[in-house]
């Protein structure tokens, strides 16, 4: 203790001795700039934690300033601020004191230990492994992109997307997916969901009243179109893809499809079906919206190229990073037919003025560096291993189970040889989504066909879950 001017019981019988400045010394030795803020934070914390108790008298501003080697005005300001905040009080002529803070609520009584719930393994489809998100490489891309961005680029962006990102996306989509595209034809958006929202507005303004959607399909897409003033019309999907006869009969002049890997049945649109759908679009001035949500991941052969590559004027191609990096990035793209582009860019402008510049620049840097290709290769390896692990564990636990859907993407269909009671899966802590959950019309729960996502689960997660399911099945002797 450097000073003799301590507050002692003899100075102030009501206050215990309290070396306030000792607590403050580390804060006072920090850089000059921000020293007042540091001192304030240290003093508040000492009061909150009870190291300076209510009724403690603080040294005079002159003494404290001298001891801490700071200006007296800084200490006066500090005291004034903390008096205003209620940490300190002052009485004219008699000094500054630690105030009594309102009593903190006492901690709740310690609860009696609860029984540990059984583990639950959620086979939710469509979720990537978020632990594979390349945090360091993404941060590095952000840093290098921000360093390189001229100040002017931080203004409102081109709503169509940063030119360097559109160029990098055009290269990627042409090379990997066979999309017919130039940078001027790419529109950057926040994902497939936003593509549907923007397109819905544009189609509505052009006089469309309905849009065909796959049934079964991705039900969250239905309300996106409803919100744009359109009526979604469910069109059945069979083993070859969307039924073109039912599409023609629906009266819709636009249809959203997942041709590379149907969600959720996992079928790939056959060449004949792709041709039939393109004929429908050509004959009826229809538009096909190609949702290529997981088209990069195919495990038994090279992925089928984008339908858009066959007819860029009839197909709007869309995708995102939601299955390869993280859905939370909200980063996607579309390549519309030329005659829709301007209206879509305008819809994007009036919706949100364009995607965030720093994120776009970072993604462009990530793409240019080859890091995105590496990420796709990593996901491909991991997801394939997990699919294999799932099929192994599933067939070991449930003799006679059949797996359907092509070897692709992040999910498969398991067809059980008997109805699987909910009580059995619940007892095993295995959460499976029945295929009937993805049908447009509400229907009785399908207890034999389930949609299983695997990309986010490790091999041991999967093995343990199916060992529990096998045990649960044995206990009910199905
Ligand atoms: C069929 C389908 N399309 C697209 C997406 C991705 O949408 P977004 O790009 O808006 O994240 C998903 C996500 O689960 C999906 O299931």
Protein model, in words:
It is a single chain. The relative contact order is 0.12. The protein has three domains: 2-117, Winged helix-like DNA-binding domain superfamily/Winged helix DNA-binding domain (Arc Repressor Mutant, subunit A), CATH 1.10.10; 132-370, Aspartate Aminotransferase, domain 2; 374-476, Aspartate Aminotransferase, domain 1 (Alpha-Beta Complex). Residues 1-18 have low confidence and may be disordered. Helix 6 (163-177) packs across helix 12 and helix 14 (422-428) crosses helix 15 (459-476). The chain is globular and about 95 Å long. It has 478 residues and is α/β, with parallel strands linked by helices. It has helices at residues 20-28, 35-48, 61-68, 72-85, 135-148, 163-177, 192-205, 221-227, 244-250, 271-283, 338-352, 357-368, 371-397, 422-428, 459-476; strands at 57-58, 88-91, 95-98, 121-122, 187-189, 210-215, 231-238, 241-242, 254-257, 287-291, 315-320, 332-335, 402-404, 411-415, 430-431, 433-434, 449-453. The site of pyridoxal-5'-phosphate has 13 residues, from helix 7. Residues 126, 191-193, 218, 258, 263, 291, 293, 320, 322, 327, 332 line the site of pyridoxal-5'-phosphate (PLP).
């Amino acid at each position: 203790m450097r000073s003799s001017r301590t507050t002692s019981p003899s100075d102030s019988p009501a206050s215990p001795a309290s070396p306030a400045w000792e607590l403050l010394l580390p804060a006072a030795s920090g850089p000059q700039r921000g020293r007042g803020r540091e001192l304030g934070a240290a003093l508040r914390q000492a009061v909150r934690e009870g190291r300076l108790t209510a009724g403690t008298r603080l040294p005079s501003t002159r003494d404290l300033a001298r001891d801490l080697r700071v200006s007296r005005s800084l200490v006066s300001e500090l005291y004034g601020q903390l008096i205003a905040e209620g940490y300190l009080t002052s009485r004219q002529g008699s000094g500054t004191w630690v105030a009594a803070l309102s009593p903190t609520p006492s901690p709740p009584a310690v609860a009696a230990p609860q029984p540990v719930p059984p583990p639950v393994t959620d086979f939710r489809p469509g979720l990537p492994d978020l632990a594979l998100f390349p945090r360091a490489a993404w941060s590095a891309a952000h840093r290098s992109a921000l360093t390189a961005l001229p100040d002017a680029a931080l203004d409102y962006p081109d709503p169509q997307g940063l030119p360097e990102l559109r160029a990098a996306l055009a290269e990627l989509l042409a090379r990997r997916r066979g999309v017919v595209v130039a940078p001027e034809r790419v529109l950057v958006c926040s994902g497939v969901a936003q593509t549907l929202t923007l397109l819905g507005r544009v189609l509505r303004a052009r006089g469309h009243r309905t849009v065909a959607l796959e049934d079964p399909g991705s039900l969250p897409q239905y309300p996106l179109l409803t919100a744009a003033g359109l009526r979604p019309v469910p069109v059945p999907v069979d083993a070859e893809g969307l039924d073109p006869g039912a599409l023609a009969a629906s009266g819709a002049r636009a249809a959203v499809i997942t041709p590379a890997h149907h969600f959720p049945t996992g079928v790939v649109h056959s060449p004949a079906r792709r041709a039939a759908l393109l004929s429908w679009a050509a004959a009826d001035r229809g538009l096909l919206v190609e949702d290529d949500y997981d088209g990069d991941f195919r495990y038994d052969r090279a992925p089928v190229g984008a339908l858009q590559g066959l007819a860029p004027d009839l197909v709007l191609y869309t995708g995102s990073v939601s299955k390869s990096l993280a859905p939370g990035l909200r980063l996607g793209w579309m390549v519309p037919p030329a005659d829709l582009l301007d209206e879509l860019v305008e819809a994007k402008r009036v919706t949100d003025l364009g995607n965030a510049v720093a994120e776009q620049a970072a993604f462009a840097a990530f793409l240019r560096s080859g890091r995105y290709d590496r990420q796709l290769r990593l996901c491909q390896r991991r997801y394939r291993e997990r699919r294999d692990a799932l099929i192994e564990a599933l067939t070991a636990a449930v003799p006679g189970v059949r797996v359907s859907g092509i070897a692709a993407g992040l999910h498969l269909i398991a067809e059980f040889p008997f109805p699987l009671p909910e009580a059995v899966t619940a007892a095993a802590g295995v959460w499976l989504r029945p295929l009937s959950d993805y049908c447009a019309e509400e229907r009785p729960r399908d207890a034999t066909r389930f949609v299983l996502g695997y990309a986010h689960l490790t091999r041991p997660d999967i093995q343990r879950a199916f060992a529990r399911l096998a045990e649960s099945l044995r206990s009910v002797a199905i």
